[in-house]
Specification:
The protein is α+β, with helices and mostly antiparallel strands. The protein is built from 8 helices and 17 strands. The chain has helices spanning about 175-200, 270-290, 300-315, 320-335, 350-365, 370-375, 380-390, 395-410; strands spanning about 20-25, 50, 55-60, 65-70, 85, 130-135, 150-160, 165-170, 215, 230, 255-260, 430, 435, 450, 460-465, 470-475, 480-485. It has a 6-stranded mixed β-sheet with strand order 6-7-8-9-11-10. The protein has a 5-stranded antiparallel β-sheet with strand order 1-3-16-5-14, with no helix packed on it. A 4-stranded antiparallel β-sheet has the order 2-17-4-15, covered by helices on one side. Helix 1 runs parallel beside helix 2 (about 270-290), helix 2 packs across helix 3 (about 300-315) and helix 3 (about 300-315) crosses helix 5. The two termini are about 20 Å apart.
Length: about 475
């Protein structure tokens, strides 16, 4: 059987064998619609659309390198995810499906690296120069009758920039140099980049405060008990309401809360990346609610994808932020277990790495104005993506399929069109924190694999020289492209 792993043994090549190697299984007698292949486009369009109940054979060429098969399950809202069976020994007998190797979601894990311990000085009583904030402690169960577990803290204002005020928890011994470095990064990089991509900070400020606040406190991670690095609370853009448990302690200010762990040596990249990430959330929610008329804001998975993209766009990506690198590397190791949109069943119940890559791919291909168009769209989630992408001559289903192929293709096959490759981040190559190898392949048993129904997943199958030609059958729509040297 084939062990899962990256397609690292492949050598980059400029040769591509197109759709002739993808054909319908004559034993089943179902025709498969393949798009025409233009002589000027080695990849053509989507080379295979595997329809319900159809068996499709992917012929192996007489070559010495593995065959790679990229499959995508893009579904719009309301569509039903589908199963896919892959056989290495001929036509698939549905009655024998349970004998196929079936992979399961691994136990939830946190793909973020372990945080260094924090030594906190003794608690200091509030002083006259202290500014108080209410902090939600993510991941903790709220007391009875409360919406959140939250605590009021006292802070000192250690730096004031042109576009921000940096407050540090009074229990911390943070230096003014750390606060000044953060203020400088925010003023010179994060603020201009995020506001260019996602919309302006409110000209009137929030709650009488012209600048957003960055508040550094160990309470963000409950004194290191969780891996949370930062957060933005939507309620803080509103005035407090004593009758509403969710808003009775609203700070009524644009605030990014940052964990004290980012003050540790070697974590400055994570500090800046986290602030860029959370400031995107602030801008996104403000404009989505006020200008686009969407009171609920953006769907969580898309909001998070744009937020981690913001980190990379500000220059704090896989080579600058250990946390961003860890999320991308963790995604690649189990890419077949991650859905772009359904985080609840993903490892660690997150999808930051996949979201970062997907949004970066879209901005690389369609232009950096696309994220801002999503923010201003009156739609949410995939419906918004589909509508915006259609203005660029694509669609959600087409772009997600092309993204799935780009994950496999980039660094292995040449792509003059830019359709199946990345510009701003590379799935394969060295970073400051380790080497990325691209997505790992689905583990195959002796007879193949059974892929459970799940939407918005990018799959990679890798077949070794000498393996039989794989046969695919789906209970619904899959999109596939075979990449062979």
């Amino acid at each position: 059987s084939q062990a899962p792993g990256p397609a690292a043994s492949l050598k980059p090549t400029s040769t591509f064998i197109p759709a002739a190697n993808v054909k319908a299984n004559p034993a089943v007698g179902l025709a498969m619609g393949t798009a025409a292949v233009s002589p000027t486009d080695r990849y053509g369009s989507h080379l295979a659309v595997i329809a319900a109940g159809q068996a499709t054979t992917i012929d192996r060429p007489a070559k010495g390198q593995p065959l790679l098969l990229a499959l995508a399950t893009p579904t719009l809202d309301g569509a039903t995810p589908v199963d896919l069976d892959l056989s290495l020994d001929g036509a698939i007998d549905p009655a024998e499906k349970q004998d196929a190797y079936e992979f399961a979601d691994p136990a939830p894990q946190n793909n973020s690296p372990p945080l260094p311990p924090i030594d906190l000085p003794a608690f200091r009583l509030f002083a006259d120069d202290v500014t108080k904030f209410w902090v939600i402690r993510p991941g903790l169960k709220p007391p009875a009758g409360e919406a959140y577990d939250e605590i009021e803290i006292g802070t000192h204002l250690l730096a004031t920039g042109a576009h921000c005020d940096v407050y540090v928890d009074a229990v911390l011994g943070a230096s003014k140099e750390d606060a000044a470095a953060l203020a400088a990064a925010f003023d010179n990089i994060i603020f201009p980049t995020d506001t260019r991509l996602f919309g302006a900070f409110p000209a009137e400020g929030v709650g009488g405060h012209a600048n957003p606040a960055i508040v550094i406190t160990p309470q963000v991670s409950n004194n290191g008990a969780t891996g949370t690095l930062a957060f933005f609370a939507r309620r803080d853009l509103d005035a407090p309401d004593p009758a509403d448990p969710a808003r009775k302690h609203a700070n009524h200010r644009g605030i990014v809360f940052l964990d004290a762990a980012t003050l540790a040596a070697g974590r400055r990249g994570d500090m800046f990346a986290s602030v860029a990430h959370e400031f995107q959330h602030l801008l996104n929610f403000h404009h989505k609610r006020k200008d686009a008329g969407v009171a609920a804001g953006e769907e969580m998975w898309l909001d998070e994808a744009m937020a981690v993209y913001a980190s990379g766009a500000c220059g704090y990506g896989v080579s600058e932020s250990r946390s961003v690198y860890a999320h991308v590397a963790g995604y690649f190791q189990r890419a077949y277990n991650y859905s772009l949109t359904d985080w609840s069943r993903n490892p660690g119940a997150s999808g930051y790495g996949m979201g970062y890559l997907f949004m970066t791919y879209l901005a690389d291909r369609f232009g950096e104005e696309l994220p801002g168009q999503l923010v201003m769209s009156p739609l949410r989630g995939k419906a918004s993506l589909d509508a915006v992408l259609k203005t660029h001559g694509s669609s959600y289903a087409d772009a997600f399929t092309d993204f799935s192929v780009a994950l496999v293709n980039d660094g292995l096959f040449n792509d003059a069109t830019g359709r199946f490759s990345f510009k701003s981040v590379k799935p394969r190559g060295k970073t400051s924190f380790g080497e990325l190898h691209g997505p790992y392949a689905v583990p195959l048993g002796a007879d193949g694999a059974h892929v459970p129904a799940r939407a918005d997943v990018a799959y990679l199958f890798q077949f070794q020289p000498g393996d039989p030609s794989p046969v695919l059958r789906s209970g619904g729509l899959f999109r596939a492209i075979a990449l062979v040297p």
